[in-house]
Structure formats: structure tokens, C-alpha cells
Write a structure and sequence with these properties.
Number of strands: 0
Shape: elongated
Strand content: under 5%
Largest sheet: none
Distance between the termini: 52 Å
Order of helices and strands: HHHH
């Protein structure tokens, strides 16, 4: 019984991580679309959401800085 419960928890954890990675990828693409359209506030919000889900998402940091720079907010861009 304990082995079954442990296996279930492990599967749920892995499934959750996969969903978070997919969600982060979708949010990243939405942020890129907003950035290309010049909607910097939306882009910044999307990239911050990505980083909440995956703090190691390097390109989200990069694009967040680009969005801040294009917005003219150089202090946040650095």
C-alpha cells in the first residue's frame, strides 16, 4: 500500500512538472508575441509569470530585460 501511494505521488509530481514546463513555454510565446507588438506591459507580465513557474528559464530573463529596455525602464532592464 505504501509503495502504491509513493508511486502515485511520484507520478503526480512528475506530471505537475511537465505541465508547469508546458505552461511556461506557452506563457513565453505569449510574452514574445506581446513584445513584437510593442505591448511591453503584457510582455513583462508574461515573462514574470514564466519565471514564477520556472526560475531557470534563461530566455525569459533575457526577454524581460529587453521589454524593460524598450519600455525605457533601464533600471529594471539591468
Amino acid at each position: 500500500m505504501k509503495k502504491n501511494m509513493l508511486a502515485f505521488i511520484l507520478v503526480a509530481l512528475v506530471f505537475s512538472m511537465v505541465l508547469s514546463a508546458q505552461d511556461a513555454a506557452v506563457l513565453f510565446q505569449e510574452g514574445n508575441t506581446a513584445l513584437r507588438k510593442g505591448d511591453f506591459n503584457t510582455a513583462i507580465a508574461k515573462f514574470r509569470d514564466v519565471l514564477t513557474l520556472d526560475p531557470n528559464f534563461y530566455f525569459a530573463y533575457l526577454n524581460l530585460g529587453i521589454a524593460y529596455r524598450r519600455q525605457g525602464n533601464l533600471d529594471e532592464a539591468v
